[in-house]
Specification:
The protein is mainly beta. Helices cover about 10% and strands about 30% of the residues. It has one domain. It contains two helices and 14 strands. The strands form three sheets. Strands 8-9-10-11-2-1-14-13-12 form a nine-stranded antiparallel β-sheet, covered by helices on one side. A three-stranded antiparallel β-sheet has the order 5-6-7. A hairpin with a 5-residue loop joins strand 5 and strand 6. The longest helix is centred in the first third of the chain and has 17 residues. The N and C termini lie far apart (about 40 Å).
């Protein structure tokens, strides 16, 4: 399903404007690569700072870094969920206490601070100890024809992705997997604080080509169900100016070699959802922890 609108409905103009400050801060703080972070922009409050993260590799455009990956779990009922570790209190050197949600996954320290950019650090769903929100993935209104079969707000289930190896659309090649768009930790928050996500069930993840650290992370973060194929998920906010991009859903994607990639049509940034890299960025502190 093509969408030529520069600011698609799902991007929510209010969230775009709110996120510009965070995106501009990040783009000013990063050059190219993980070792060129400008230390003068490092947040000094709790819940922020220089972070290593795993994400979809940015392959084109002005975005300063890749899209952060959400490690996933499958419940006993076949529900898809993002990992949200138990929150714990930590103390900075100056005695300031703050709450942090982190865990070791596949030998990697995963923390929900990976998602504190583009204004998301102000969202209630990103607060580590917000117990009003669960970790289940839920559908939004959808941009793919197949999502007419589900309702917005429904929990994502593995049974909805059983035809992942047959699904296709007008943009890109067949056999790439089956995507869905949705929300995460956003049931009890204002609409402008919705956290958008992209989930793909695919067999395009080449574990043999990964280094050992990345492979260990991916095997733990991308669950496989009994039908085969693995699930991978991202926070769906372009790291440039915080728009919601499109995966095989925007007509202009082929013009930028993004037929099978995530494409943001606002400023033509492109991310490869199957090329996972470890990088570094300055996570923005939550206001209450600054």
């Amino acid at each position: 399903m093509a969408n030529d609108d520069k600011y698609p409905v799902e991007s929510d103009r209010r969230r775009f404007v709110k996120g510009v400050v965070g995106g501009a801060a990040i783009s000013g703080a990063l050059a190219t690569g993980a070792v060129t972070v400008t230390s003068t922009t490092t947040p000094t409050g709790g819940g922020g700072g220089i972070m290593n993260y795993f994400g979809a590799n940015r392959t084109l455009g002005p975005a300063p870094r890749g899209l952060p990956q959400i490690p996933m779990e499958i419940t006993d009922d076949g529900e898809l969920a993002g990992v949200w570790p138990e929150p714990e209190s930590e103390t900075l050197g100056d005695g300031t206490e703050f709450v942090r949600s982190a865990a070791e996954i596949g030998g990697v320290e995963y923390t929900t601070e990976w998602f504190q950019y583009c204004g998301l650090q102000t969202f209630e769903g990103i607060v580590p100890d917000n117990t009003d929100e669960d970790a289940l993935f839920r559908y939004d209104a959808g941009v793919y024809d197949w999502m007419d079969e589900v309702d917005g707000g429904d929990v994502m289930l593995t049974e909805h992705f059983e035809d992942y190896d047959d699904w296709t659309t007008q943009i890109g090649d067949p056999d790439q997997g089956k995507p869905a768009t949705g929300t995460w930790r956003s049931e009890e928050v204002p609409a402008e604080e919705t956290i958008p996500i992209l989930v793909i069930k695919t067999d395009q993840l080449d574990f043999d080509a990964m280094d050992e650290r990345t492979r260990d992370w991916m095997e733990a973060a991308c669950p496989e169900d009994e039908d085969g194929g693995r699930y991978i998920a991202y926070v769906y906010k372009c790291t440039h100016f915080c728009c919601v991009p499109g995966y095989r859903s925007l007509a202009g994607a082929p013009d930028f070699g993004a037929d099978n990639k995530i494409y943001c049509n606002c400023h033509n940034s492109v991310y490869d959802p199957f090329d996972i890299v470890e990088d570094q960025f300055p996570s923005l502190p939550r206001p209450e922890d600054s």
